[in-house]
Write a structure and sequence with these properties.
559 residues, 2 domains, 3-stranded antiparallel beta sheet, Spore Coat Polysaccharide Biosynthesis Protein SpsA, Chain A, 18% strand, alpha/beta, Seminal Fluid Protein  PDC-109 (Domain B), 9-stranded mixed beta sheet
């Protein structure tokens, strides 16, 4: 069956990531940006950092002026006379990395997209057919166990990798460092990065136990200009959380200019354009730029679990999800959760004109969102949580054939800028446009797309907003994890007490903004999804706060 896709859009003005040495076939960087060797034992780059190494041609000032004039962006050089020689050189380098020929198109499309209302898709959408859906709630236990076995088998054979999308800025969270470094206030004080690293350790151990084969799940981390350096330092300071450094592969996505509502490039400073990552859909260009797919092939990785950094409940390389997708012969899959209500502002995984797609809430009418089936369930209930399965072959096809066809999305943001008098301004209302690509927009290219439904309270609690917000805050993320661990302990036969000494029910959960009923935290190094706890906790009474780490587990085993 053939498919027709829209012609590729013209290239965006994407700057090229910083150059590095060409010391090895996979572009592992062994020197920092000052040229100092980093190959020693204390090297920041003792793990693998992949970066695109462009052939950069430095343009002359006159060439840049002409290009900016043609693009209608001559204001970019407004402060040139005020810059010192060093700042001029740096600015000229930045401008030389831009696709100045495509700058005019980029700015015009951004302004047009921001002014255009979203298209209505009501007449063209339909749910994903049931035969392409698996569910932890609706699929039978035998199937779930078979998928888990298949997933662990693939992991044990070193065929599974995980890829973390960590290039975004934590502006809504109110911090100036990567979200993965955030401590939500757990009793253990663990950050998101540490929790995720420990889940990788545990899933490797489970695969070994089930199939008797030591294995590795490589951790690919897509960063940006904003997040790479602090992430590198954080991992080094924490000894890579016990993961073999060579199995942590960091790489950068590209950056693109932000523009005003009338299509003018925004200056962050007198000699610097306000840039932004090109969205989590920048993954596919970054995979090609940084030769990440070549690294995967060399390691034998055939399947990839892709997820966002901010979900505290994410199950790294979830064997049930991996096994389901592999068993179905899928090249692309998405985890979803049931929407809490028709008006919940999340994208819905469905089909548009017969092709898999995520449809935003703004793209359908309320009456469509409110449609219900014979059993009263929402027809369009499959909420997207940015948790995906891809085969390496599919990613290769996207990078080589389809990346240029990905849709550009508009994000209206508050972008700090320098005004006409050279003053730094932090706007209090949105003033700029960031153009983004979304990771899920490749679903349309899949030949066998599947959906796997999971339980929200077990697998999805994102960290997006600062405390004080009604949802998706450090408090709600922390409470979600603690409530999950209380349920695990109760299911294992323990009696969990709240702060008043009262028993907690087996089905303990939290509502938005609720204080935690108990401080019960179980290390991922002890249990990945609640397994193995009966021998440790059955018949015990757990007073809050209770932390079950490896040391405590050994103490309980010895009793």
């Amino acid at each position: 069956m053939s498919r027709c896709f829209a012609p590729a859009a013209p290239p965006l003005p994407l700057p090229l990531p910083p150059p590095v040495c060409g010391c090895c076939c996979c572009c592992c960087c062994c020197r920092d940006r000052t040229g100092q060797d980093r190959t020693g034992q204390d090297s920041l780059h003792s793990y693998c950092t992949l970066r695109f190494s462009p052939q950069l041609t430095m343009l002359s000032l006159e060439q840049v002026k002409q290009s900016l004039d043609r693009a209608g962006q001559s204001h970019v050089l407004h402060f040139w006379p005020e810059l010192c020689e060093e700042d001029r050189d740096a600015f000229l380098r930045e401008l030389s990395q831009l696709d100045l020929r495509g700058l005019k198109d980029h700015c015009e499309r951004a302004a047009e997209a921001a002014a255009s209302p979203p298209a209505s898709l009501d007449r063209h959408i339909e749910p994903v057919p049931p035969q392409f859906i698996g569910s932890v709630k609706r699929s039978d236990e035998k199937s779930l166990e078979e998928w888990k076995h298949e997933g662990l088998l693939q992991i044990s054979q070193n065929r599974v990798g995980v890829l973390l999308l960590a290039g975004g800025q934590g502006t809504r969270l109110g911090v100036q460092y990567p979200k993965g470094m955030y401590n939500v206030g757990l009793p253990s004080g663990k950050t998101l990065y540490q929790i995720q690293a420990e889940r990788i350790h545990k899933i490797q151990e489970l695969a070994d136990v089930h199939h008797g084969s030591k294995c590795t799940v490589p951790w690919y981390i897509m960063t940006s200009e904003f997040t790479l350096a602090p992430t590198e330092v954080f991992f080094k300071e924490n000894n890579y959380f016990g993961i073999e450094p060579s199995d942590i592969i960091m790489f950068e996505q590209r950056m693109i200019p932000t523009v005003t509502f009338d299509g003018k490039v925004i200056l962050q400073d007198k000699g610097k354009i306000a840039m932004a990552p090109d969205g989590n859909g920048g993954l596919y260009r970054a995979l090609a730029d940084n030769k990440v797919l070549e690294d995967m092939k060399k390691r034998g990785v055939e399947y990839l679990h892709v997820y966002c950094v901010d979900n505290i409940l994410v199950k790294m390389a979830d064997p049930v999800f991996i096994g389901f997708c592999v068993s179905k012969g899928a090249d692309c899959g998405a985890k979803v959760v049931e929407k809490v209500c028709p008006a919940e502002p999340v994208g819905v995984v469905c089909r548009v004109r017969g092709i898999a797609q995520v449809v935003e809430y703004s793209e359908i009418q309320p009456e469509t969102a409110e449609l219900r089936g014979p059993k009263g369930d929402l027809v369009y209930s499959a909420g997207n949580i940015c948790n995906h399965f891809f085969t390496r072959a599919f990613l290769q096809d996207v990078a080589e054939k389809f990346e240029g066809q990905l849709k550009q999305h508009v994000a209206i943001k508050k972008v700090p800028f320098v005004d006409a008098h050279g003053n730094q301004v932090k706007p209090t209302t949105p003033n700029g446009i960031k153009m983004e690509k979304f990771v899920f927009d490749v679903f349309q290219f899949s030949r066998n797309f599947v959906v796997f439904e999971v339980v929200r309270q077990d697998e999805f609690s994102p960290l997006k907003n600062a405390d004080g917000a009604a949802t998706d805050s450090p408090t709600t993320a922390r409470n979600s994890l603690l409530a999950q661990h209380c349920r695990w302990a109760a299911a294992a036969g323990a009696t969990v007490l709240d702060e008043q000494g009262n028993n907690l029910p087996l089905t303990v959960s939290v509502s938005t903004g609720d204080a935690p009923l108990a401080q019960c935290e179980i290390s991922p190094l002890v249990s990945y999804f609640g397994e193995g706890l009966e021998q440790l906790l059955r018949g015990r009474t757990l007073a809050t706060p209770f932390i079950l780490d490896e040391k405590k587990a050994k103490e309980l085993q010895a009793q």
